[in-house]
Amino acid sequence: MMDDKIAENFLRLVSDTRKNGVPEMHFRLWRRSPDSVREKYLAAFRADPEAMAWYEAGYIGEDPDFDALLELPPESLGYQYARHIIDNGLNKTIASDYRRAHARMDVEGKLQGMPDEVKYATLRGFQIHDIFHILTGDLTDARGEMALQAFTLAQRRLPYASIWMATLTTQMTFENPNMTELVMDAISDGWRRGRPAGYLNNERWEERLAEPVEDLRREFGVTTAALN
After folding, report:
1. 92: exposed, middle or buried (C-beta count within 10 Å: 0-12, 13-18, 19+)?
2. CA distance linking residue 149 with residue 23, whole number of Å
3. Residue 163 contacts residue 22 (beta carbons within 8 Å)
């Protein structure tokens, strides 16, 4: 049974996703969920030898040199990533910023209950999220973010993306039925593309920024967004 505090927090998230974000709900889930739920997530992660090898290696990306990225060919992952970050006004130093924030939250006890494997996967997930936008072709608009979260969930069973899905489907059911087509088209598209694609999480993308995006998509069997 869901913890009353988690249910209360989830309803606040549904009511105001800007004020009560998914990351905080994610932290609370690990702190307050029953051991049986946490163990299921952890068992699924540990059952994947590649994921465990990646966790044990502990690779963490560094902030890229954006001037250097903009000198790469336009078809490269690095150039398109740089343009994506700059054109959308996003954080150029998310790799180092989130690493420091993650370490601070750990010291403060906000990551209580979160296994070390999941701490690592969460940190790395924030670092490569915008690289996934390029590889999948999902834009940074509402539909693109929904589709990318569904793609991510299709590749790895951890609750961060699931919280996104639960929030969206609750909002469309209880608050705004007019969201239904947008939400379900985006979720089904991202999920459908994520399932057969090669696993994107266990890769040193920061070392492959000079490679053409289309070559990387072919290598990993990634098909781009059906709708934008």
Report:
1. middle
2. 13
3. yes
DSSP per-residue letters across 96-135: HHHHHHHHHHHHTTTTTT--HHHHHHHHHHHHHHHHHHHH
Q: How many whole angstroms separate alpha carbon 31 and alpha carbon 168?
A: 23
Return d(Cα 226, Cα 142) in angstroms, integer: 15
Q: What is the pLDDT of residue 227?
A: 58
pLDDT of residue 16: 87
Triad 134, 136, 139: Cα angle to 5°: 65
Q: What is the pTM of this model?
A: 0.93
pLDDT at 147: 97
The span from the CA of 121 to the CA of 58, in Å, is 10
Spans of the chain, pLDDT less than 50? none
